[in-house]
Amino acid sequence: MVKPWFRLICKREQLQLLGTLNGGQSFRWKFIDLEGDKKWIGVFEKHVWILKQNDEEISYQVYGSDNDEKFYNNMLANYFQLNLDLKQHFAEWSSKDPIFKKAANQFYGIRILNQDLVENIFSFICSSNNNISRITSMVEKLALLFGEKICDIDGQVYFSFPPVEALAQDDVESVLKKEGFGYRAKYISESAKLITKEGVDRWLEELKTLPYEESRTKLMTLTGIGPKVSDCICLMSLRHLQSIPVDTHVYQIARKFYMHSLPKRKTVTTKIYKDIGDHFRELYGPLAGWAHTVSYNTFITIFKHTINYLSQVLFCADLKKFQNDEN
């Protein structure tokens, strides 16, 4: 059954689908351009979404349930966190940081997605020493192998992301190893079993209520989650928008452009990690993680000819696609 098209009023300056959906936050979106018919197809909240954008609105179809336009508009607005006025915040961040001001011209409308916590935890466990293309493939395999079918669209079958209980089954590790997950198969299996043992609903609900630092600590009790991945999850699923995920490239950028007194190190120590995060939180304020996402994309562009950022999951987009607007 072909679904109707609905409309969500949202100016492009407030939401740029290209930079937001293609930036390494979620791994379940695909951009399709068929003879000028440009659209995004993705899965979240057990629904399949088809999105199109112009300067004034998002038009969309939804598969997975039958509800009214208001219901779906609320889901999209929550997912893209449209309650935050980006134009206002971009102006504030630009006044504090000339580097951000340059970033804002190209990376306007980039939003932090409010993602499903379970999907985000296991997606970022897959991100260990990985690139976006392979992470995307792994996440899709998890959905195919252990999720539930949502629908068929043009011969393509779409699946929801599996619940924790499905990933805690005894055969999950062996199945995933056969599918090429490597050591991440054990990480996924052990993390799912730990959460299940504690009580899935209780564990997840408690995590959602904890302050930022306690959330980070609790997440790092899971196998395969360190400080950076923990901060990614805090930022994208727990609304701790002050979270600053730090890797070696963020460290290099901070040392070169912001914090010249940082010691030269090959790896990021616990102290350096905290110092960098604190610096950007002081610079940008309570939404520091959001601001840092935008400014970080600028540095990716600057260094793309000399550093292979495609191996990083921290907001690393397919940079060539940023050179041309999706319209």
Walk me through the structure.
The chain is of the alpha+beta class. Helices cover 49% and strands 13% of the residues. The protein contains 16 helices and 7 strands. The strands form 2 sheets. It has a 5-stranded antiparallel sheet. Strands 6-7 form a two-stranded antiparallel ribbon. Helix 4 packs across helix 15 (288-303) and helix 14 (270-284) crosses helix 15 (288-303). The longest helix has 16 residues, at 288-303. The chain is globular, with a radius of gyration of 19 Å.
Name the features.
disordered C terminus; globular; single chain; 5-stranded antiparallel β-sheet; alpha+beta; 16 helices; 7 strands; about 325 residues; two-stranded antiparallel sheet
In short:
With 327 residues, the protein is an alpha+beta fold. It has helices spanning 17-21, 69-79, 86-96, 98-106, 117-125, 132-146, 164-167, 172-178, 184-198, 200-209, 212-219, 227-237, 248-258, 270-284, 288-303, 319-322; strands at 6-9, 29-34, 37-44, 47-53, 57-63, 149-153, 156-159. The strands form 2 sheets. It has a 5-stranded antiparallel sheet with strand order 1-5-4-3-2. The chain has a two-stranded antiparallel sheet with strand order 6-7.
